[in-house]
Amino acid sequence: EVQLVESGGDLVQPGGTLRLSCAASGFTFSAYTMSWVRQAPGKGLEWVSTISASGGSTYFADSVKGRFTISRDNSKNTLYLQMNSLRAEDTAVYYCAKSGSKGYYFDSWGQGSLVTVSS
Amino acid sequence: EIVMTQSPATLSVSPGERATLSCRASQSIRSNLAWYQQKAGQAPRLLIYGASTRATGIPTRFSGSGSGTEFTLTISSLQSEDFAVYYCQQYNDWLMYTFGQGTRLDIK
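ok -> structure tokens follow
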């Protein structure tokens, strides 16, 4: 059974930094593209970032480009999201998501980690 | 950026009845469309990918159709556990994945 467990969410001041982690199990982590998707309180879903299976390629939504970094450690089956220069509009639940085998949909999701940016 | 528009925003249906949810893309996305179900306080769950292929473990009462710009999710006979928010997502636009704003399915 695929399991994705996020951690690292917290209350942080505007301009601050935070790193989220996602521990994966139940599948061959190193074989799959992984992503982060976020959901602001009471709002819809927004794709944030994607990293290739090897970690050699990374992609970001315009809203976070230049501020967020995605990485992975395939030896530890763990995905990361480094968030810098945080803004109030980054407040959201951040989900770790595994890509499907037949396209860039998301076939498994973690339970989410809440990031609150506020002074 | 491809804009995904879902309608209606809220749909009220009685248990046992059929529900039809719509999703429209601002340009052709071929069949690169997924549907997700999200219950309050939970993560989204994949229902459909490739516009019409059910994900593993999804009941047959869920079906998807469409291609190009017009898509439909049909739930043939609503069960109590189906009342939730449903999102469509396009993955045709390389690394600019976008979601619809969601349709809330309420008990009538």
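The radius of gyration of chain A is 13 Å.
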